[in-house]
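Why show two proteins at once? Because comparison is the fastest way to build intuition. When a single record is shown, students tend to memorize it. When two are placed side by side, the eye starts asking what differs. So, the first record is below.
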Amino acid sequence: IKIAEISIPEEYIGQKLSAIGPTSFRNLSLLALKYPDKKQSTPSLEKWVAVENKNFNTDITLEKEMRLVVQGKKKDIIDQMTL
């Protein structure tokens, strides 16, 4: 079992987190959602905010610069990244 940070799949960009559902990630558990903290980031240092799955606001609209933190088998993570 591995934990990895992956980009938001193209087909989910612009959708609400509530619309994609937990089964969308094929054998992976969604642990957290990360996004850039635009208030604290500087040109030389990008800071991130991570929200655990138990604290998700399901009205969040997924954007290209966001990242998903997932847990699962290495093969399943790689498969998700190549979609």
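Second record. Ask yourself what differs from the first in the token line.
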Amino acid sequence: MTDLTPENIDSRHDGFALSAVRARARGQARGGVVVIQEIFGVTPHIREMCGVFADAGYEALAPGMFDRIESGFLAEPNPEGFARGLAAVNASPWNQVAGDLQAAIDALPKPCFVTGFCWGGTAAWIAAARCAGLSGASCFYGRLIAEHLDQRPRVPVMLHYGARDANIPEENRAKVAAAVPEAPLYIYDAGHGFCRRGGHDYDEAATALALARTLDGFVRWGEQEEQR
């Protein structure tokens, strides 16, 4: 696995020092990727995703989005962990989230992209709408995106959902698709959290395809940025 380096970044929201882990790009960096956590914190899954992007040539940074609640916040994917994670979500207003993500974007080479999983998928959508210095966003199973369609992405986005995700019914996905018809919206034969290795919905084939599509998008969007 790619080595991860701990560091701190100062939020553009309030100057709070967020912990983060950085994965250096393999070879010369072709850009940067902010990797946004699920509700469980910067878990082994999120660290693994940083490694995936670093191996593909991007410098990856995963900020600890719930550090204000608890330094190094981590929760298990069980009922108690879900409750802790949801409480952290409710204590993290979107203005604060956007400011934290702006600090992560500012700390990475350009072109810079953002991706996130579950709550992080919605946070990636918010970043695409509010943050500067981005060239694209790949949003994985963000249930709350449908509640923030007034936040219009200013950069290209793509969306990934599991067809068997009981948390995100078809009506939710259809609402998002209608709001951004220009954005690729991919449906996989999988459940929720299909990228989280070890989770009960983990699906290796869906993960590989979704990440390949994401990396293809980053290359394409980066080239479009160079042509502007």
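One difference worth noting in the second protein: The helical segments are 44-55, 79-90, 94-106, 119-130, 170-179, 204-227.
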